[in-house]
Design goal:
It contains eight helices and four strands, in the order H-H-H-H-H-H-H-E-E-H-E-E. By secondary structure, it is α+β, with helices and mostly antiparallel strands. The chain has two domains: 58 residues; 108 residues, H-NOX domain (Alpha-Beta Complex), CATH 3.90.1520. It has a four-stranded antiparallel sheet with strand order 1-2-4-3.
Length: 192
């Protein structure tokens, strides 16, 4: 797994819970307190070790922590570049959803060796979708729920999200777009 993923998780813990908590997580996971290298590759199992350590330290389920990570990745000022990358997916939340299957390729334009889960969006009925996330390990679906919830707010859309579950390397999220223009979304301009 790409070191950028680990650094993002480290940044989330540091910003949300502080240095002392990060040191406890790092010690329990057996990684350096100063974190891992952003451009290095690490064993995928290390991600599970770090998540287990965070869950134990915080006394919260890993799924909740991952969802909060997804929210952090899109809403924190230190990760504004990711929000911008996502907003290029469309002018409305519905357009954004339709562009999600292109997200792994768009991310590789920014970081060529970054591998993200494959995403597939299915239209069920007007305003109702299933997003399937394909990955070798469980967890990215929960991160996506946090990201999607935050992006819906960013666009000003009223959305109902439900993590349906995981099965054989795929996780499914149910998305119901109730009102695309529920409130005024956050400002977004193509130019920085």
């Amino acid at each position: 797994m790409h070191g950028l993923v680990f650094r993002s998780f480290e940044s989330f813990i540091l910003n949300s819970y502080g240095q002392t908590t990060w040191i406890q997580v790092a010690d329990k996971a057996g990684i350096p307190r100063q974190g891992l290298q952003s451009l290095a590759e690490y064993d995928d199992e290390l991600a599970l070790d770090i998540l287990d350590a965070a869950s134990e330290t915080l006394g919260r389920p890993g799924s909740d922590i991952l969802e909060d990570l997804g929210t952090f990745l899109v809403s924190n000022p230190t990760t504004e570049a990711l929000r911008r990358l996502l907003r290029f997916g469309g002018a409305s939340f519905a357009e954004f959803l339709q562009s999600l299957d292109e997200l792994p390729d768009r991310a590789r334009l920014a970081v060529s060796d970054l591998v993200l889960p494959q995403l597939e969006l299915r239209d069920n009925t007007p305003g109702s979708f299933n997003l399937t996330c394909y990955w070798d390990h469980p967890g990215p679906g929960h991160v996506l729920v946090g990201m999607l919830r935050t992006m819906a707010d960013d666009y000003g859309a009223l959305v109902l999200l439900e993590y349906v579950g995981a099965d054989n390397g795929k996780e499914t999220i149910s998305i119901k777009l109730l009102d695309q223009e529920f409130t005024q979304g956050r400002d977004f301009h193509l130019a920085v």
